[in-house]
Amino acid sequence: MLLGATEALAVGTCVANISARPPQTAHAAAAFLAQAFPARFTLGLGVGHPQQASSVDRPFGSPLSTMRSYLDVMAAETWPPAPDAPYPVILGANGPLMLALAAELADGAPPAGLPPQHTASARRVLGPDKLLVVAQPIADSIETARQTVSTWLGRAAFRAILTELGHPAEPTDALVRALVPFGGPDSVAAAVQAHLDARRRPRHPATSGRHGVRPGDRPARVAGPGAAVITTPGLGVHKRSKRVFARVA
What we know:
Shape: globular
Number of strands: 9
Distance between the termini: 25 Å
Structural class: alpha/beta
Helix content: 40-55%
Low-confidence stretches: 202-208, 213-249
Mean pLDDT: 82
Largest sheet: 4 strands, parallel
Strand content: 15-25%
């Protein structure tokens, strides 16, 4: 609906849970969108969590091997054939191993909810030629921001990344302010700019993922140097967060 109602807006999934649909179904749907709206759609994929897989009666194994297998099957032929329309694939990745897999097999990654120093680290892992589309949460108050950070701190993997970056694994005022800007447009703009500065790269790279834009194409309209993902928690209810791709000057 967003693609059909606009002429230049870039839209992506951030992220589509791979337990929810077979890989060839995901590829066919993305290819049809890419054919209808060239250079405007990005497919973001994520392994999700064990409870999400169990809700659809699917096993939850090693995230790395599960994602690798999913991408392998996506590359297989479909019947009827999917359109021959390239689109970037980015993998939901915060940790170094999934980021490395994104560098190997996909077109980039959308790290979420982490400080700019993690963005700089993700750029080093991905290399200079991959898409790095950062998910930046925002809030309307420090209380809402603290609730969001407290929820994330309940995940062992998230705590481990923060500890590796030198941050405390508790929702201190300093950590909350570092992860979730609040207080108005200026604080949000400063946070987004900090991530953009941390992920500097050439303006028009060629990507090499198996489903991504072909060498010579220009993915900047999809998720280029001026693009970011903004996540807005809805009035303190983290489960109702809204996500939208936004271009930043």
